[in-house]
Structure formats: structure tokens, C-alpha cells
Amino acid sequence: MRIALGIEYDGSRFHGWQTQQPGVRTVQLELEKALSRVADHPVEVHAAGRTDTGVHASCQVAHFDTEAVRKPHGWVMGSNINLPGDISVLWAREVSDEFHARFSALGRTYRYYILNRLSRPALLAKRVTWVHGPLDAERMHEAGQALLGTHDFSSYRTVHCQAKSPVRTLRSLSVERRGDYLAMEVHADGFLHHMVRNIAGVLMAIGSGERPVEWAREVLEHRDRTLGGVTASPHGLYFHRVDYDPAFGIPSGAQEFPLLML
Question: ∠ CA(70), CA(31), CA(26), 5° rounding?
């Protein structure tokens, strides 16, 4: 049978999602070890999105195949008992064999959180990106609207991106301020390597007044990563939601971020 999972994790001490060479701590490796103990056989896990080093998830979705029969509650509790404290399985449910966490996804949403104040964070260190200079959220939001639609996002992906096509459809982008915190939410059919962090880097340069509002569109039109500015820190980035056909019965996504109230 095929089991889908909802997972949250603090990526601060992980080298990303994907299993790498021995001795490298990844979310996939820790999750597969825990699930294999519960299933009593080796388990391979597939995720909706492969987050990078330092990137968090408030609701990653993954699936695995198993011959073991467990109740959903058993998969959740059994996994969490065997997982380190910076990963938690939120829910589990049996799904059809047609479901694939990555290839069945209709859209994905990331959130990027910025603490914008003079003093560095203590409670949320490595969970938000800190910018001490003033940022104009309205300018950032306005600039981001130029990226909506279907475009070649070559300027917004890393030069090491292995995606066959740089074309993606950005469905929505918003930047909102509440007190000292800014939240950028980006929804698309899919994302390129470092795409969200590069968008955040461009918008923060605009929000600081270093660049004009039109720069986001100019960077897009150049289709040249070397002209795209600084890649923002991974600390504020969260894989927030995945959209699927309702027929699969997958929960819609994560709850609001409790600490930032955004």
C-alpha cells in the first residue's frame, strides 16, 4: 500500500532534504530510518519538494510504499518516537497507487519570513532572515507583481539548477508587514533551484531603496543569473503548502505560523 505523510521540520541542522553521501545529515535519511523501524523493512520516501540546506518546512508532503499494515495513528506516533526533535510527522493516510508526492502536485507555496529591526533575533535565530536596515513592504509587493505569469526564470535560478526548462508559472506573490516582521508568500506550479531565495534577494534590494521597483522585471527579462543580485539566506524560507487534486484526500496545507502570527 502507499502511505502519504505530512511533515514539518526545522532545517537549521540539516543539509537539505535529499539523502547524500554517508555521514551527511538530511531530512530524508532521518525519516527513512524512522519509518523503516515502524514498517520493519527498508522504506524509500519521495517528497513534494527537495528543500536545500537550512530551509524549513511547515507542511512537506511525502509518500512511501510498504507491505506493513499500520493504522494512520501508528505511522504518526511510531515515526515521531524514532525521529529527532527537529522533525515531526503531522499526519499519515493511505492513498491510491496513482498518487505521487512530487508528480501529482498541482502547485506549491513557499513563505519567506524577514525580521526587520535594528537588533538581531535571539528567539528566532536561523528561523527568520534578519535585515537591520528599513524595508518598504509595499515597494516589494509592487515589484513582485511583475513576476506573475508564465516566464523564463533563468535570472532567478542558480547556475547549478538541473531543471530541464527554466519556464515556470508564478500564480501569486505577496509581501506583507506586521510590526517588525515581513512575510513573502509565493505560489507557483513549481520552483527552480534557489528561485524563491533569489526573488527574495531582489525584492529586499528594492525594499531597501537600493534598486528601483522596475528592477524585478528587468532582472527577469535579462534571463541571466549573473545580473540577478544576492541570493537571500535560507533561514527565513519555509516549504508551506502543496496542492493536489481533492480526490487524493490530502490535507490542504500548514496552519498559520504561530510565532509570527502571519
Answer: 175
Residue 56 C-alpha cell reads as: 524549513
User: Which of 225, 254, 238, 166 is CA-nearest to residue 196?
Assistant: 238
Q: Residues 139, 135, 206, 10: is their CA dihedral positive or negative?
A: negative
Q: For 183, phi and psi rounded to 5 degrees?
A: -125, 125
64-82 tens-digit pLDDT: 999 999 999 999 999 999 9
Q: Where are the beta strands (DSSP E) in 27-76?
A: 46-47, 56-65
Question: If DSSP states are collapsed to H, E and C, what string results for 175-232?
Answer: EEEECCEEEEEEEECCCCCCHHHHHHHHHHHHHCCCCCCCHHHHHHHHCCHHHCCCCC
Can you read off the three cell numbers belonging to residue 85? Answer: 526533535
Q: Judge whether 152 and 166 are in contact, CB under 8 Å.
A: yes
User: What are 226-259's pLDDT values in tens digits?
Assistant: 888 889 999 999 999 999 999 999 987 666 555 5
C-alpha to C-alpha distance for 229 and 90, rounded to whole angstroms: 37
Cβ contacts of residue 111 below 8 Å, gap of 6+? 58, 183, 184, 185, 186, 237, 238, 240, 257, 262
Residue 38 CA to residue 71 CA, distance in Å, equals: 11
**What counts of helices (H) and strands (E) characterise the chain?**
5, 10
243 among known catalytic residues: no
What are the φ/ψ torsions at residue 83 (nearest 5 degrees)? -95, 150
Nearest to 239 by CA among 198, 172, 169, 191: 191
| Catalytically annotated residue among 40, 52, 65, 189 | 52
Strands 56-65 and 237-243, sheet pairing: parallel
